[in-house]
């Protein structure tokens, strides 16, 4: 599936995400030279309805058009077919951010493609990796990392003070690249927000000029560090809704306000139909189902039983079905983390 190019197609500069498939009809890796040969790897559009990374990247390329880049760039344009329909993925496709080495998915053309990208970038001695995403729910901008080593924290802190450490789900791009170099996933708010593009562009440009990662220590007052301890999914056989009271699970229509908020035990997430138990599946870092540790059903009320901080809660029912309802996080004290 993978196509590799050594120059930019000129039509890219005037493209929109829905046009991208006509220019790059398959997932494409583009290599551009720069003053420093170890490339910065940037992936965009792994999810076809998350265009902020694409717009920021095009703005970056326009800035340096007909100039020598400060550092070589390797650019991966992911699910261009889904982008043509403004969808996260097509029904017959795997999630392009679950196909990378370490995935639990069976071998497919997509997983082989992801392995080829990692092998290619290892041979090119990749400097750092950035994977850009959007949220569908109401979330702040934040950076995600898969290692707590100092260089990863420094790279994430360059984007902002909110940093999330996670090791589940498996098969994500940043985890695969974390074996090669400092790697970060950017969560840049909802699509269509100018600030998301500007913030991402500023970060990409800063990374392009890095010669190395800062050696000075990160201080506790400079970072809010969280650990994702659980991924929450709605069971496949459960009919859920935010509006239809006849559903097996009627979720509260104000759940998005819990994103990045400390939520107390006893907080109600929704109402469960009579005789319907355990509508959610909750997976920990090891992929074990631990729903009983986080939720209970009491008098048809679905309640959180362990204080947590949710992220990625959204009202988009299609995204919930394709991905998850949310993640649950706990704060990490920087004093407990090796930062040098």
Core attributes:
globular, alpha/beta, 8 helices, 340 residues, twelve-stranded mixed β-sheet, 26% strand, five-stranded mixed β-sheet, Aminopeptidase, 2 domains
Notes on the protein architecture:
This protein is of the alpha/beta class and 340 residues long. It has 2 domains: 3-216, Aminopeptidase, CATH 3.40.630.10; 230-326, no CATH class. The protein has 8 helices and 17 strands. The chain has helices at residues 20-23, 52-63, 80-83, 109-123, 150-159, 173-177, 194-208, 317-322, and strands at residues 3-5, 28-32, 34-44, 69-77, 128-133, 142-145, 162-165, 183-187, 224-234, 240-241, 249-251, 268-272, 280-283, 295-298, 301-304, 309-311, 326-331. Strands 1, 2, 3, 4, 5, 6, 7, 8, 9, 13, 16 and 17 form a 12-stranded mixed sheet that branches. Strands 10-11-12-15-14 form a 5-stranded mixed sheet, with no helix packed on it. It is globular and about 65 Å long. The two termini are 40 Å apart.
What is the radius of gyration?
20 Å
Number of helices: 8
Examine the secondary-structure arrangement and name the CATH architecture of the largest domain. 3-Layer(aba) Sandwich
Strand tally is: 17
């Amino acid at each position: 599936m993978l196509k590799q190019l050594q120059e930019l197609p000129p039509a890219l500069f005037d493209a929109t995400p829905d046009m991208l498939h006509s220019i790059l009809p398959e997932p494409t890796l583009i290599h551009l030279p720069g003053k420093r040969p170890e490339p910065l790897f940037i992936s965009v559009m792994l999810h076809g309805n998350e265009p902020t990374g694409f717009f920021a990247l095009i703005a970056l390329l326009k800035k340096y058009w007909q100039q020598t880049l400060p550092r070589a760039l390797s650019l991966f344009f992911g699910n261009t077919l889904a982008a043509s329909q403004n969808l996260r993925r097509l029904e017959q496709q795997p999630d392009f951010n679950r196909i990378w080495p370490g995935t639990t998915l069976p071998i497919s053309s997509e997983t082989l493609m992801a392995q080829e990208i990692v092998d290619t970038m290892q041979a090119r001695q990749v400097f750092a990796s950035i994977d850009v995403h959007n949220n569908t729910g109401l979330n702040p901008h934040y950076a995600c990392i898969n290692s707590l080593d100092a260089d990863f924290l420094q790279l994430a802190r360059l984007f902002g003070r909110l940093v999330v450490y996670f090791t589940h789900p498996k098969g994500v791009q940043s985890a695969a690249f974390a074996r090669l170099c400092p790697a970060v996933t950017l969560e840049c708010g909802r699509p269509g927000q100018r600030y998301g593009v500007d913030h991402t562009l500023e970060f990409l440009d800063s990374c392009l000029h890095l010669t190395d990662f800062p050696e000075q220590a990160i201080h506790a007052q400079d970072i809010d560090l969280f650990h994702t301890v659980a991924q929450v999914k709605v069971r496949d056989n459960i009919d859920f809704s935010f509006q239809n009271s006849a559903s097996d699970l009627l979720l509260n229509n104000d759940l998005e306000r819990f994103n990045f908020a400390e939520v107390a035990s006893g907080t109600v997430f929704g109402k469960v139909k009579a005789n319907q138990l355990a509508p959610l599946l909750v997976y920990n870092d090891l992929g074990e189902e631990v729903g009983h540790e986080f939720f209970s059903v009491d008098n048809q009320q679905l309640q959180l039983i362990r204080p947590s901080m949710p992220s990625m809660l959204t009202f988009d029912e299609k995204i919930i079905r394709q991905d998850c309802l949310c993640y649950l996080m706990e704060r990490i004290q920087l004093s407990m983390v090796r930062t040098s």
